[in-house]
């Protein structure tokens, strides 16, 4: 089953023929060291899948306590497995207890194949160490001697060694690194993380639902506010139009109220109070007042206009007010006044039978001056 290549044959030719005289204790140590070296080599092949690299020599010499410390005395196979397992879990890049068990199974298989398979593995280790600068010394100290010694070992002893290796058990509690407790704590952490993730997803869903509800409410409120703004704007427009109409109407009323009132003698007269029409012998006064009640001056002006009825003035006479003033200064008897009326000299001023004390007549101070 095991076939050596030409390179391996040439490599074995370079070895010198030696014989080793070992006592029982030393032989035991050699067998345990062989198991230690094979375990490190199996780890290297298992991790890198047979592809050698610059870390291959480091892995083998670091994981094997025999090659690392140069002088190690194991008392049992179990001690070898514990030492290898602790180193696998501490030193290399890939640290896992499953790698320890896989390397253990591979070593058992190599021992079952016989001393030819063990020699082939030792030749491969010798080649790896020869390509590494600091590790080639280990060939002179250990690997070359193992390659020469294994060729003279009886196959029965290797079979017995394989059987004792198979009977040995290795668990995580033997490592002394509290692996079971750490794994239980890691499982609890994973469960907590899963629970937190589940709670986070639930909270995110609740937040999304609440955000969607708030967005819907905001949209509805915005639409309602826009509708109310539109209605408010329509009401404002209607109110402004109505206010404009009311203000214009009030402005016309105010203009009519504040319009100057001038009578025939230059006194102030309300244009909105009356419209005077003079005819042949009849005076028609149409009193059209739109002023509201409550102002004393306007009421007085209305009383003045109602008391005065003007007709056409005769030539050579002054205003009706002047005539009435002269009549008051030079009283004439009623028969004479009526005689003048009877003579038919024209139109005349009719004065109310009761003198109105509020009637303001033009003064003749200018003529006197």
Automatic annotation (TrEMBL):
One of its GO terms (molecular function) is unfolded protein binding. Residues 229-245 have a biased composition (Acidic residues). One of its GO terms (cellular component) is nucleoplasm. One of its GO terms (biological process) is box H/ACA snoRNP assembly. InterPro entries: Shq1, Shq1_C. Residues 207-292, 308-369 are annotated as: Disordered. Residues 334-343 have a biased composition (Basic and acidic residues). Residues 2-179 form the Shq1 C-terminal domain. Belongs to the SHQ1 family. This is Protein SHQ1 homolog. It comes from Hypocryptadius cinnamomeus.
């Amino acid at each position: 089953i095991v076939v050596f290549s030409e390179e391996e044959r040439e490599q074995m030719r370079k070895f010198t023929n030696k014989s080793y005289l070992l006592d029982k204790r030393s032989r035991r140590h050699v067998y345990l060291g062989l198991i230690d070296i094979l375990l490190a080599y199996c780890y290297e092949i298992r991790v890198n899948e047979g592809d050698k690299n610059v870390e291959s020599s480091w892995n083998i010499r670091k994981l094997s306590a025999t090659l690392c410390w140069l002088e190690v005395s194991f008392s049992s196979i179990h001690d070898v497995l514990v030492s290898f397992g602790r180193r696998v879990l501490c030193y290399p890049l890939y640290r896992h207890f499953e790698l320890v068990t896989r390397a253990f199974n591979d070593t058992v298989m190599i021992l079952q194949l016989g001393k030819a398979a063990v020699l082939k593995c030792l030749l491969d280790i010798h080649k790896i160490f020869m390509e590494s600068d600091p590790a080639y010394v280990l060939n002179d100290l250990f690997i070359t001697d193992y390659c020469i010694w294994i060729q003279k070992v009886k196959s029965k002893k290797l079979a017995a060694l394989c059987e004792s290796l198979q009977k040995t058990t290795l668990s995580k509690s033997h490592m002394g690194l509290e692996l079971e407790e750490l794994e239980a704590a890691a499982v609890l952490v994973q469960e907590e993380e899963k629970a937190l993730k589940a709670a986070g997803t639930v909270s995110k869903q609740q937040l999304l639902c609440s955000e969607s509800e708030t967005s819907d409410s905001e949209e509805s409120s915005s639409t309602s506010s826009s509708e109310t703004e539109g209605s408010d704007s329509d009401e404002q427009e209607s109110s402004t139009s109505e206010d404009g109409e009311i203000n214009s109407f009030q402005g016309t009323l105010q203009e009519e109220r504040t319009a100057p009132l001038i009578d025939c003698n230059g006194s102030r007269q309300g244009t909105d109070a009356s419209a005077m029409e003079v005819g042949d012998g009849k005076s028609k006064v149409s009193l059209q007042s739109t002023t509201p009640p409550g102002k004393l001056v306007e009421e007085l002006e209305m009383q003045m206009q109602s008391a005065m009825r003007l007709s056409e003035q005769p030539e050579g006479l002054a205003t009706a007010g002047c005539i009435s003033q002269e009549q008051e200064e030079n009283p004439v008897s009623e028969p004479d006044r009526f005689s003048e009326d009877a003579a038919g000299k024209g139109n005349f001023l009719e004065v109310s039978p009761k003198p109105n004390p509020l009637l303001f007549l033009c003064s003749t101070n200018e003529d006197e001056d």
